[in-house]
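Fold tokens
===========
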Amino acid sequence: MKRMILPLVFGLGGAAILVTLAVWQFQRLEWKEGLIAAIEARIGDAPVPLPESPDPARDLYLPVTVEGTTGAAELHVLTSVRPEGPGYRVIAALETAEGRRVLLDRGFVPEAAKDDPRPPATLAVTGNLAWPNETDSFTPDPNLERNIWFARDVPAMAAALGTEPVLIVQRSGQGWPRPQPVSVDLPNNHFQYAVTWSLLAVAWLAMTGYLLYRIRRNTV
């Protein structure tokens, strides 16, 4: 029996750790689902007038409504949308009647329509404020000669178009550009992780039981 004590303690201890990890992942799953639900509710709220000084933390995903006129200059962000395939997000400056200039993500155009003429237009826009976290140390610098950007870099785009560092992502519209509304883009793999840890705990206990069986049989 003494030979069984150490394997038993080791087996039960390992299983306890694996079960703890599984429970933690289930807790993380509950937290993540609550966070996603809160963001989705925020995105779908009734729109309000554009704040005087939008704050990236306080006003992230805030639904807003604003009227203004787009400028002729555009920035094109390389992207891909199903089922159309590769193309570009069209980012333009929107100037309000009060003289404010903000960035407007008008939506997606296919590659063939990248340089189609889009004359200035007066729009009543409903959308959501966004400060997309799309840049890192691996993001290439924009190709200014060809007007191709590789991420929605709000400060850099605002500098290029002479606007406030504020981006409104348009919710709806007809034709091209086709609006690509803000959506929740948070990874949520906690259920798979929890199942994995649970199955490992079961396997660990099964192997422990088999080891104890072999030890007992060899000592009889």
